[in-house]
Amino acid sequence: MALLDRAIVRMLPVVPRPVVRKLSERYIAGPELADACRVIKRENAAGSHATVDVLGESVDDEVEARAFVEAYLRVLRAIEREGLDSNVSIKPTAFGLGLGYEVCRANLEEVIADAASRGNFVRIEMEDSSCTDETLALYRELRGAGHENIGVVLQAYLRRTPADIRALADLRPNVRLVKGIYVEPPSLAYRGFDEIRASFVACLEALLTAGAYVGVATHDEWLVDEACRLLVNRPREEYEFQMLLGVRRELGARIAADGHRLRIYVPFGERWYEYSLRRLQENPKIAGYIAADTFGRLLHPLNGRGRKA
Ligand SMILES: Cc1cc2nc3c(=O)[nH]c(=O)nc-3n(C[C@H](O)[C@H](O)[C@H](O)COP(=O)(O)OP(=O)(O)OC[C@H]3O[C@@H](n4cnc5c(N)ncnc54)[C@H](O)[C@@H]3O)c2cc1C
What we know:
Elements: H1 3-11, H2 17-23, H3 33-45, E1 49-54, H4 62-81, E2 86-90, H5 101-117, E3 122-124, H6 132-144, E4 150-155, H7 161-168, E5 174-178, H8 193-209, E6 213-217, H9 221-230, E7 239-244, H10 249-257, E8 262-268, H11 273-282, H12 286-299
This protein binds flavin-adenine dinucleotide.
Flavin-adenine dinucleotide (FAD) is lined by residues 125-126, 153, 155, 176, 178-182, 217-220, 242-244, 247-248, 265, 279, 282-284.
């Protein structure tokens, strides 16, 4: 990333929320479930599968965690009702992991059981390293309780991940493999671009050797090509590629045109801010975006004013 972009990324938390919201529109389906359904229909029509994320993380109490459970149950009902090709992705902290392991487990189990009754699937996401042990324990315990319709996420930047793959191998896990998005200390995580790439490839190889179903979740074209090389003789139903809504659509089109399964991550909801910041911080053209928005507002100062609420 260029110097100016890096400086702007550091400033993002002080950029006014309305600007962040506008800049990040492409990454989010909208505030309502209906928005997510509309976007999933569009993605399905283009041949892609979807996974839905109800935006938000880290709840303060059980009432808030309950609201997330209810929201996901509504999503699962809507997917079935509208015949959408989509599963769901859940952040453990939104389901109460910070309040207690058992709270989160019970909440997850309710949604997983509901998903199973509809023939659907739940991906348990991976958050910062303070959650890794408990998230993997949840996955193992829920699989042990007979829930087969679940998967987890592993982060290639964590030094521990090869050991986690070995420990999970007996489950033949369903794993979304990502680089990792949270800021972690060098004692826990690789920081260099090339070493994270190398770890991603090594983790993918290890997962395939372990017989895992892998969701290769990256927009890094080099990694997509490396994955295609490793997957060359695999049946298409044993893996998929995954990408975030609004990111590198041309790469997604190429993956799909080559005949691979592609799943698009579709976030929706009112709690858009943290997710938006993360996406903008990853966008290599962030300086250009901010400049275009700022000049746009300077040139058209009346935009947005004088409208009815
Ligand atoms: C489906 C999916 C689910 C994920 N789930 C998790 C999770 O549970 N836990 C977790 O820690 N992380 C998760 N991530 C995020 C992941 O860890 C990375 O932070 C993120 O994918 C960026 O890494 P990359 O592999 O795409 O490579 P990068 O090197 O970051 O990106 C490759 C290229 O993609 C383009 N690009 C990337 N981001 C943007 C953007 N926002 N806007 C425009 N262009 C962009 C750029 O051209 C960039 O050069 C998920 C990612 C995906 C795709």
